[in-house]
Amino acid sequence: MIFFVHGEDDFLVNKRRGILQKSFLEHSPEGELFVFDFEDQGTMDAVKKSVSSCASGLFSSKKMIVFLHPFQLEEGAEHFFLDFLQAFVVKNEKDTTLLFVEPGKIKKTNTLVKFLLKHRDTEEVFTKPEARNMNEYIKTRLSSLDAKAQFSREALSLFIVFLGNNTARIETELEKLSTFKPGGIFEKEDVLLLVGSMAENVIFEALDALAQGNRQKALVLFRQELVGSEGVYPLLGLCAWQVRRFLLVRELYDRGMSQPALIATQIKVPPFVVQKILGVVKHFPMTRIKKGLMLLSDFDTALKQGTLDPLVALDLFVWKF
Question: Fewest CB within 10 A of the end CB: N or C in the chain?
Fold first, then answer.
């Protein structure tokens, strides 16, 4: 048996590898599991060692041999490995499973890739979910963790803004939310509390810097946040969400409402958050806030159409807002 698991979503690829290994050991408790990683050791010696583990004897048990990063082999080692695989396919071994795992994009012109695509018994490809499919992806993953739990519409939108399509963090944060509120409905406040506090604080601090006219500081904060995020688009989405809150607070402030508790009741935001926003929003007249939302809306359209570079969009927001 030859299994081939690959794809650009490293987290999902490695998660699937773990599931397959666990399943093998559960169904074959007397079986043998070997794992070889060729990423840094694609030498002839490493390949010969891995191939020797596949040898079967009269009383040998079932085996699973896992090959990680199999396309990093040296030229001579790759030829040797292909010869072994050709013989393996001809023998049609039933008690030995070869699991090839490549976290990343494959080159279909690669000789070993072409062999696996032709002779694999099973192939699984894991790509990062696209933006338009994130709602269903998150709902499916949550259902697998807690069949009764669900997101409110606002909470799900905010969850996606915070995490984008970072599947590793999505899994971690879903587990956190499920433990915090088993079988419940996750509201916006839950997501803010458990998922978005760090990102929200950075965005708030950057917008505060813009309010003070310190565009350089805002740019530095945004760039630092980019290092640990999934790109510009989720970051701009979080900015839009925060600026919309500024708009709600500013509107009530202009009507003469200045008590955080009263504003919090009106817009359903915790009073301490309103208190923070009030300290900043006084520097943002309504016209500027509306201009910022229009900018972000225009950038969103341009990014989806591919007519604007994401980093340029971020820079333009800093300098024009």
Answer: N
pLDDT at 60: 66
Q: Find out whether 112 and 71 touch, Cβ atoms under 8 Å.
A: yes
Contacting residues for 113 by C-beta, under 8 A, at least 6 apart: 71, 106, 107
> pTM score, two decimals?
0.59
Helix 44-52 to helix 75-91 angle (10° resolution) is 20
**Are 198 and 268 spatial neighbours (Cβ–Cβ below 8 Å)?**
no
Query: What is the separation of C-alpha 196 from the centre of its chain, rounded to a whole number of angstroms?
Result: 15
Place of tokens 């739990």: 149
